[in-house]
Amino acid sequence: MNARSTVSLVGDTGRGNEAAILNAALEAFGAKGFHGASMRDVARGAGTSLSNLYNYFPSKSRLLAEVLRHANDELVTRLHVAVDEAGDDAVSRMREAVRAYVRFVVDHQLAMVVSTNEVRYLDGEDRERLVVDRDATQAVFEQIVAQGAASGEFRTPHPADAARTVLSGLAGVAQWYRPDGRLSRGQLAEQQARYALALLESPLAH
Amino acid sequence: MNARSTVSLVGDTGRGNEAAILNAALEAFGAKGFHGASMRDVARGAGTSLSNLYNYFPSKSRLLAEVLRHANDELVTRLHVAVDEAGDDAVSRMREAVRAYVRFVVDHQLAMVVSTNEVRYLDGEDRERLVVDRDATQAVFEQIVAQGAASGEFRTPHPADAARTVLSGLAGVAQWYRPDGRLSRGQLAEQQARYALALLESPLAH
DNA sequence: CCTCCACACGAACGACTGTTCGTATGCCAA
DNA sequence: TTGGCATACGAACAGTCGTTCGTGTGGAGG
């Protein structure tokens, strides 16, 4: 079945066409890249006029920043819910964190791709804010790995480096995943969880 | 020490300013992205005139294609040398392949970043040719993992998927590596090799 | 000497870019 | 009714884009 979710990243915000513009911007930036997509592309996708975009966002780069912020918020929320609902041991928590991450990639692949590929076009405050938000994601994984290293559940040295490598691999999933692929959403999540636990040298995981 | 190599990706090609143009294009595309960088940027970086670029490359996208082809050629060459010089067992071959890959990332980080981030702006024959070339890289890793799975050196199921995950993680290194980081080139290569072997569930590796 | 070819340049073209301006509509509060 | 505010639009601006054109130079081969 493996159908791609058609749920938009941004739900209604209560401000006229704001959500439509944000989702259209995500589509445009995802399809053509930040500099390859024009504000006219975004307006067309949102079903509104070019000049009306500037009633919501003061510039193109700020529009990108808002798109990325919405994407990261959704990811962080999902991660915290998943980890909170997991057991107390590091293996369980890591497994659930990876599962949640992969499910986000499958549900909002475009958002993930844009997040990793276009973030470098931000500058100034917008960039700093997003870096801080992204560090929060990394901290979730780092803390779990540190816990597992302390308890003996993970035997990998340099927990912080290992956590980053796991995250790097997960982000990579968005680059090659195809909704019509061989594995279902759940199977992919399970497989990635196994890879992560193996990389962390968890003796009991397999 | 960790000094970044200052060796250019493309050596002299025997055709006037060709190498300078290719290297300048790599710098420009890496700094601003394919659509963010202009042909005028490339010309300035190469120390030549805008119109002269078209004596060497018929279009901007073809210029990108040639840059990516040079980068991939260098990577594939290094990989084959490393694997050929390794022992016969899969663990040794994988370790050397990962080491060579990481060393390429360190030596030519910009080329690696551009390869992963800008390849999607190619289309038509240029894109197809690069996909074929990239499959050759993947095949090197897939074959090693398959060998190790058959011999029992690797216990991971679905060798092809595992190989892609390893490669995906290695490509990710280029996104976060900094020459002034804590680890030396050799230490980073060693660490990534350990991660790869652990992910492949190699019982003897650690 | 002459021709050819590789290499180099400045100027220009039409298309497209992000952004601004002036204006209009309709709704809510006073 | 009046005023203000959020939302919406078309037209226009100044700048940049990739690409082409015409021209020029200098060395190699006949």
From TrEMBL, chains A, B:
DNA-binding region range list: 38-57
Keywords: DNA-binding, Transcription, Transcription regulation
InterPro entries in the cross-refs: Homeodomain-like_sf, HTH-type_TetR-like_transc_reg, HTH_TetR, KstR2_TetR_C, Tet_transcr_reg_TetR-rel_C_sf
Residue span(s) of domain HTH tetR-type: 15-75
Coiled coil regions, renumbered to chain: none
Record's keyword annotation contains DNA-binding: yes
Name by which UniProt lists this protein: TetR/AcrR family transcriptional regulator
Organism per entry: Actinomycetospora flava
Lineage of producing organism: Bacteria, Bacillati, Actinomycetota, Actinomycetes, Pseudonocardiales
